[in-house]
Amino acid sequence: MAETARTFHPAITNKEIWPGPDGYPWADTGIRTWTREGVLRRVAPGRLICTWTTGGFTEPTTGNFTMITRSENDGETWSKPEVLFQHPTRGLFTTELFIPNENEVHAFLQTYPHGSWMCHLHSYRAVSLDGGTTWNGPHSIPGGIENVWVNQGIVHSSGRWIIPVSWAELIGDEWAEPSVGRPPAECIVAGQPVKQVQLPYGADSMLSQKAGNAWADRNHRYVCGSILSDDGGNTFRLRGTIRGGKHGWLIEPKVVELSDGRIVMLIRSQRDGWLWRSDSEDGGETWSEAVQTDIPNPSAKVKLLKSQDGRIFLIHNPVNSDGAIMAGRNPLSLWVSDDDMETWKVRADLVKDPNPKASLNYPDGYVDEERGELHFAWEDGRSVFLVRAPMGIG
Asked: Is residue 186 situated within a structural domain?
């Protein structure tokens, strides 16, 4: 659906930054027109960076890599996009740009094999001290944290870094992921062969991806927690094992600090139709049992932001999926609370598409206190857009 068919809240501005008027630079290959998850950050006054994942025909595949563009004039113009991180044999996703101080950027990225991705993650961090121009790493996350999907973190009022994560736990009997062709040996546990899916020789990427995802869903439980640092990122520790969801599937948590210092985590679930919630009263060391909220969600990642005056902003797709695996992520909306998420007094649709099954995906950004605006990126699976929305929107 062409972007011109969409409608936008009259108070916002919406600008495409990828791929732009010249189209995809790889249009002749026909395989890199897929785009996912823009991450927008302000690294210093007037200086912005935006990353997104592209490459290959979808996710997860070994062709996935991260691109970056930069702005020196608060987003008015952007540099030519370039590859930021790319692995030669594994897919790669950059899911968080953590900014604890001006020009200090901690990029958290994950690599994975084709098909079974979140079940076989390698987690890394790269650090930039010049606003994302040069990088140290990627290196392992200090503390032996090697297999988590990292989401946007916060600096707590105590100074602690609290960064929410999710990961997959193998709980089923199929220990080995599907193989293409006969594996060199049987999968053996305690001397006995165990089930392993075998695909025919020459199986194409779509077939092996489908089989890998099905294996992952049959045999894994997806849980959430947080990685914490009290020394400015020199060391981290993993805390919490938040399980739940009607299908045992909780991923991509987002956190926000309430006025009394408590932390609320909102979590994406699978085929539930709602967001789930867990709370921490001790800065992320322990988390309450997850409970289902009354916030509709079509199994999509959301964005939580907080302004200096205490307002909390939820940017999301308030759509109940009613059990559907692939419900539409439409509209893209902003809810605002001024009472620590007890109520949402403002509920404004920012972007709407005439196709109810359209995907207006994965908003991510920051609060610009000087302008009194929310700035965030979103994508539709093909293009990355930037939105500016007034904090006082009605």
From this structure: no
